[in-house]
Amino acid sequence: RVVSTQSTGVNLNKTTGLPPTIPHYAAEKIESDSIWKDRPEVTVDYDQLVTLFTKKKIETRRSVEAEKPTAMKFIRVLEGNRSREVGIAMAKLPAARHIKQAIMNMDPSHITRESISSLVKLVSSDEERNQIIEAKSANPDIPLGKEEDFVHTLSNIPNIRSRLNIWAFMIDFDAMEDEVADYLMDLKECCKELRSCKTLHLIISYLLEIGNFLRQESCDGFDLSFLSKVADIKDTVKKQTLVHHIACLMHENHPSQGDLHREIGHTHRIGRIQFDEVSSTIGRMDELCDRSWEDLRIISKHTSSTNEIMQKQLTFLRSVAERITILKLIFKRVSNRYYNLLIYFGIDPVKRFTPPDEFCRTISEFALEYRTAIEAVILEQTKKKKMKERRKTRGIKITDLKNMVSGKHAGRPDKSESAGQTSESKSKKLLAKTKSSKFGQYF
User: Fold this and answer.
1) For residue 251, how many other CB atoms are within 10 A of its CB?
2) Taking Cα atoms as reference points, which of 251, 223, 229 lies closest to residue 365?
3) What pTM, to 2 d.p., does this model score?
4) How far is CA 27 from CA 9, 37, 256, 265, 283, in A?
5) Among 154-158, 232-236, 301-305, 391-395, where is mean pLDDT lowest?
6) What angle do CA 22, 26, 27 make, to 5 degrees?
7) Which residues contact 158 (CB under 8 A, 6 or more apart)?
8) Rounded distance between C-alpha atoms, residue 254 and residue 248, angstroms
9) 50 and 82 Cβ atoms separated by less than 8 Å
10) Sign of the C-alpha dihedral, residues 267, 271, 273, 279?
């Protein structure tokens, strides 16, 4: 409705609760010629003003909180540490709905080798699985927690632990086989190079001769473990090590011999790998193969023999069994070569067996000491040679040196002629100086 401002006398602040936003003046203060007497007449829709400016009640917090939905409950069975472990692993694994099919088909695009190790740890025990089933049956309307649901999904995969073990062995076997094969190849080549290394044989001969002379004895050989102590023996005059003197003898009498450190590359690699670890790796491969055969028998009870994955696993295990047998045979033959090498150097492998890593490490460390010593000897000899060349030209002028160099091509003059030329040139220079001085008038 539209009502004139002059036709209504209702106090809107009291009736509608509108805020008193406009100040009012008392009637005695308004003059007759003011704007308030001569203002134009206007119309206002008071219903609209009431709708726009009526104060609204503010809802209390209690009413808002009362309207919030209650938190959804979940079934929790796993302990704190176990639940935390499952939650961390779930963040790196694919969704539970994809895991079952990936494990059944051994799909590497969804599950990596690290994921297989994580899944093996997450497989629930029988007790844990029964607890989840009982809690779910007791509360059918309440869903399982995220971690409990993931563990329950894994437990429903048939023979999951056996499948994961075979899959992990199929991935790891090639790397394990290459590791053992590389070691055996290096050990075989190490036996060859130590037998044929002339530099090592000469060094051993020098050590034996020096040792027999110093001890005033006549021994046929010595234990090669002595090589680790050669760097600690020094002479009493120049305080140089025995390795330095051996390097001097080798450089003086056998300059054509190469660098010992470079000639025994396979020996360095054998010295860095423990022999016991390689032996245990072969035993572990054999043990994993036997366990995989047992896991395959368990899987075959719930899987058809015509299954493609089943046939793939069977073919792999047959091939692995044959390769492990060959690897054991090669290991035995290479070990016999090493035993013969010990006998070649005068060590009885029956009475005192020295592992290949310890034996080769001793020779490798000595080779490094010898390399440092021979480089120092060569550097010292080079410096002496340069000093000898400098002594030949010391005291000779540059012009005379040029004449000497040119004389190599045009025939060198006799020493008497060069001496005469030198004395003649000196006398000419002396005469020129005296003439230019104040005593030149007397000449």
Assistant:
1) 16
2) 229
3) 0.67
4) 15, 11, 130, 117, 114
5) 391-395
6) 120
7) 302
8) 10
9) no
10) positive
